[in-house]
Amino acid sequence: MSVTRTTSVVLAALAVVILAGSMAGFAADEVKATNLVPNGDAEKGVAGKLPEGWGHYQNTKDEAGITDKEFYTGKRCAFLKIIGFGGDGSACTGLTVGMTNGFTAPNGVVVKPDTTYHFSFYIAGHGFKRKITAHPWGFNEAGKERDRGIKGISVLPKPEWTRYTGTFKTGAKTHKAVLMFFVYGLEDRDVKEGATFYVDEVYLGEAEPPAAVKGSVKIKLPAPPPPPPPPPAGATVGYKPMPKGAKFVRVWDLGKKYTYKHYGPKKQWDNRANWIQVPYGTTADYKFRGDCMLEGPNFWMSLHSSGHDACFLYNKIDAKGTPSRHNEMYRSYDQPGGLRTYCSSYEYNKVIKNERGDIIVESKTKTRTRKGVGVFLINRYRAQAGKPWLEIEPMNKMVSEQGMHGESRIHISPESLPNGQDFLADSWKNNPPTSIYHPHTSRMLLDLIMDDDCIWAMMWKTTGKMPTKEKHPYFQHRSRSDNCRGGYPAGWQRIGEGSSPLIITSPFVKYRKEKMVVGVLRIGHWHYQKIGATVQADKDYKGQFKYAYQRKVKSSPFSTGKRWWPMYPGKWRMIGCVNGKYHTQPVTVTKADVGKSEFTFRSPLAGNLEYVVFYLYDRTDETPKDVFTIMDIYRQSVGGDKNKTKRGTQ
Fold first, then answer.
1. pLDDT tens-digit profile of 523-534?
2. Beta strand pairing status for 176-186 and 16-17?
3. Which of 14, 23, 46, 288 has the fewest C-beta atoms lying within 10 Å of its C-beta?
4. What does each C-alpha distance from 118 to 123, 546, 633 come to in angstroms?
5. Which helix (H) or strand (E) holds 117?
6. How far apart are CA 199 and CA 9, in angstroms?
7. Cα(530)–Cα(515) distance, integer angstroms
8. What is the secondary structure of 13-43 as a DSSP string?
9. Of 20-34, 41-55, 536-550, 564-578, which range is least confident?
10. What is the DSSP track for 162-187?
11. Phi, psi at residue 636, to the nearest 5°?
12. Regarding beta strands 444-449 and 327-334, do their DSSP bridges make them parallel or antiparallel, or are they unpaired?
């Protein structure tokens, strides 16, 4: 393939996919240069929409269509603008000349097999540090069997309009083609958010391209963003770890916005030397320069600007404060009829309270419109010194549910069944997409996460009454666990049972005009043990806890392949799965029991004891003062249980 250009070029990863079409603007006497592209000058079509005969290959967030703000000739041209990044922090998207979604092209440009074609185009742009590709893609007669093996050219969009020409040869089965302008590159390193390229006067045909024509010289560049104001007087710049037992919490201004999907904490964390601590006493007057992060004693709460996700809660996994894998804290509104609308990013983050021992930040999401209803959600997030939990308070009526994207296998609602038995939801025993509804008497939902050895404990007050007259369990039950196939199994492959075939992607709890609490407990608060043994009714089964993990968990005292033991004395609860049914028994662990792997389970019926789940529920006089149990969090955050006499009887 040969390539020529009239001026130098600068661009990020751009692939040009060649589709058929006509190109206006060439001299009428050049009859032989028949343009197969029907709308190569992008003059036909609605502004803001794709030009007639063009296509779009979108893997990450962008804007693409016709603009009359820039053009080489005529009054319009086509453009593509990068406005978001994927989970790996990259942009991956493209604009095509010829109708295609990037995978099929039933209405692509009709071409001949084994034939040489010429193409040309004018391009300009800004924000690219890496070349993009103008890449012909071929398809069969039906527009299928995509062939990306046809060679293209690399270009670097720059403010000056530049003409490129090239040739390519179709394959033996190529009957349709498109010209893809393909962008791939990492945020900041290869391409900036807001990077835009413009394309005009596209030609594709068997004859050599028409002669170059005169047009605009360069595009107008966007005004550079104003430099961020200096940190306020007295502000601390740069993160330093919170010492153990610290009597303070903090709120941070990250100085930049994080907009791509499931970005994880790495990019934020790597930039912590530039974080600004919002000075104590500064509240609603503070203007965030970037995203907001609340720091609790053992967790982070990220109120980020990604339009793909809600907001993220992280465990701290070491003394440095390193954040764990994200736990997305869903923000949703359930319209009458059950239509659920998720909201993301933020219109504002506002500091409501900012004291050393108590911080509250209010966050309003951006508005999302579905079925004609504009939905926005306002929540307040609270972190307190020495308190291992996050409080979430709804501030407008549309805040109807709190969810977590924990991705796990087992959820527990303690003491929510008759006689004080626990309700257990096991994704492996419930076929998706069936939701598992917890008893309406539940007051908390424990999400057991294995890869980080933690419990995310959602807690709320409960009346023990049916909350609505609606008959569907979606409305009747306060909490549920949504089951699905695939997804990340949260480390269940570490216990020797292989990857999870099914997972509970998330639990959801309905608000009843009151706050929700998410307890954050890590290392040694629970254990799962596969048994597979026959048990007798009302007789003790004696066993041993086997290895804790197959792979090391950071900050854990348990070694890979070694036995697990209870780390803390206290009131534990053991749930045994016998013949597919669950039976809960209280177990008191004393100081003398700590470090021992032996356990005893008494089943009320004979059968197969498939597994046991063991977790620390409440304290005894021997429980260390600095160890929080689940009930410690419940009593101190939600308050006492006024319905204790009713619990387990409904």
1. 999 999 999 999
2. antiparallel
3. 46
4. 17, 68, 70
5. strand 116-128
6. 13
7. 36
8. B--EEB-----TTS-TT-TTS----TTTT--
9. 20-34
10. EEEEEEEE--TT--EEEEEEEEEEEB
11. -80, -25
12. unpaired
Distance of CA 460 to the CA centre of its chain: 25
| pLDDT at 521 > cutoff 60 | yes
Whole-angstrom distance, CA of residue 79 vs CA of residue 199: 6
Phi, psi of 634 (to 5 degrees): -60, -50
519 residue type, one letter: G
Structure token pair of residue 60: 């990450």
| C-alpha span between 508 and 400 (Å, rounded) | 10
- Report the candidate in 395, 361, 634, 366 with the shortest Cα–Cα distance to residue 519: 634
State how far the Cα of 488 lies from the Cα of 134, in Å rounded to an integer.
Answer: 36
pLDDT band at 32 (very low <50, low <70, confident <90, very high): low
CA distance 10 to 128: 7
Distance CA 424, CA 411 (A): 6
The Cα-based distances of 430 to 433, 492, 507, 581 in angstroms read: 9, 16, 14, 13
Q: Are 480 and 401 in contact (CB under 8 A)?
A: no
Other CB atoms within 10 A of residue 191 CB: 25
The residue type at 623: T
Identify the bridge partners of residue 611 per DSSP, sorted by sequence position. 530, 577
Residue from 518, 512, 526, 519 nearest 440 by CA: 512
Give all strands of the β-sheet with 570-578 in edge-to-edge order.
526-535, 607-618, 570-578, 581-589
Average pLDDT over every residue of 445-455: 92
User: For residues 481 and 140, what is the distance between their CA atoms, to the nearest angstrom?
Assistant: 45
Q: What is the pLDDT of residue 15?
A: 40
Sequence-distant (≥ 6) Cβ neighbours of residue 38 within 8 angstroms: 20, 21, 22, 52, 53
pLDDT in tens, 335-393: 877 788 999 999 999 999 999 999 999 999 999 998 889 999 999 999 999 999 999 99
When pLDDT is cut at 50, 70 and 90, the band that residue 466 belongs to is: low
> What pLDDT sits at residue 631?
97
Task: State the pLDDT confidence band at 295, using cuts at 50, 70 and 90.
Answer: very high
Residues 198-218: b if buried by 16+ CB within 10 A, e if exposed? bbbbbbbbeeebbeeeebbee
Residue-level pLDDT at 17:
40
Distances from the Cα of 294 to the Cαs of 303, 382, 384, in angstroms? 8, 8, 10
Beta-ladder partners of 180: 17, 135
> What is the per-residue pLDDT for 583?
98
Dist CA 452 CA 249 (whole Å): 23
Q: For residue 587, what are the β-bridge partners?
A: 572
For residue 499, what are its two tokens? 């990857």
Tabulate helix, strand, coil % of the chain (nearest 5). Answer: 5, 40, 55
pLDDT in tens, 241-266: 999 999 999 999 999 888 766 656 88
Mean pLDDT of the chain: 88
User: Does an H or E element contain 631, and which?
Assistant: helix 630-633
271 vs 649, more confident: 271
Tokens describing residue 273: 């030397």
pLDDT exceeds cutoff 80 at 496: no
Q: Which secondary structure element, helix H or strand E, spans residue 197, and what is its range?
A: strand 191-205
